[in-house]
């Protein structure tokens, strides 16, 4: 499917007005977290930071910071603040093997880029990560309002679900949100991706 068709399809989807809280399934809600996911989370929480390709990252940062300025001018009024946030998003998305623009779209839908966001279900931070994950991997000390920590959890969880669903973004995003079997949340994220954060590579 071409990008234009994807954009057309995305703009016709039904989109709810309010942001959704990420409700990754906890034990007893959907299914227990798999050993593979818990191992992945444990491993990446100790991994080093850094861009793989600094030049490409800088080009991306300059583009995305202008988009973020239009999207959230009050929350991120200064260019250095926008660049710092975007650098973290880019790093964690690439570490997890995810398109950084897709992660931006998910954050846009989940928290509207508010690091202190808390959902009615108790999900926290930019990517609205459920606190039960800390207990599952034995890292109760982790602060899910910390941007780097939140992004690392969220990106790792989403990447695991994408692998589990064999590249099916709709099912992976629904699992991330705890809404497997429903499509409204994946459609919201995909619409944000194609209409606000898409980049031709």
From TrEMBL:
Domain Transglycosylase SLT: 90-183
Signal sequence, renumbered to the chain: 1-21
Keywords for this protein: Signal
Claim: Signal is one of the keywords in the record: yes
InterPro entries hit by this protein: Lysozyme-like_dom_sf, Transglycosylase_SLT_dom_1
Superkingdom as given in the UniProt entry: Bacteria
Family as reported in the entry's similarity comment: Belongs to the transglycosylase Slt family.
Name the UniProt record assigns to this protein: Transglycosylase SLT domain-containing protein
Lineage: Bacteria, Pseudomonadati, Pseudomonadota, Gammaproteobacteria, Oceanospirillales
């Amino acid at each position: 499917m071409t990008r234009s068709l994807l954009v057309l399809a995305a703009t016709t989807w039904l989109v709810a007005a309010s942001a959704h809280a990420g409700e990754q399934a906890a034990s007893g809600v959907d299914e227990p977290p798999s050993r593979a996911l818990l191992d992945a989370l444990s491993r990446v929480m100790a991994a080093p930071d850094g861009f793989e390709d600094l030049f490409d990252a800088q080009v991306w940062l300059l583009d995305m910071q202008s988009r973020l300025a239009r999207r959230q001018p009050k929350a991120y009024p200064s260019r250095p603040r926008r660049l710092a946030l975007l650098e973290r998003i880019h790093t964690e998305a690439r570490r997890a093997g995810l398109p950084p623009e897709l992660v931006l779209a998910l954050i846009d839908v989940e928290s509207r880029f508010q690091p202190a966001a808390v959902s009615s279900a108790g999900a926290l931070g930019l990517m609205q990560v459920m606190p039960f994950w800390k207990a599952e991997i034995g890292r109760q000390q982790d602060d899910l309002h910390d941007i780097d920590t939140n992004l690392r959890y969220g990106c790792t969880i989403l990447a695991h679900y994408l692998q589990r669903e064999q590249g099916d973004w709709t099912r992976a995003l629904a699992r991330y949100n705890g809404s497997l079997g429903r499509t409204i949340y994946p459609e919201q994220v995909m619409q944000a991706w194609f209409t606000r954060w898409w980049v031709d590579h």
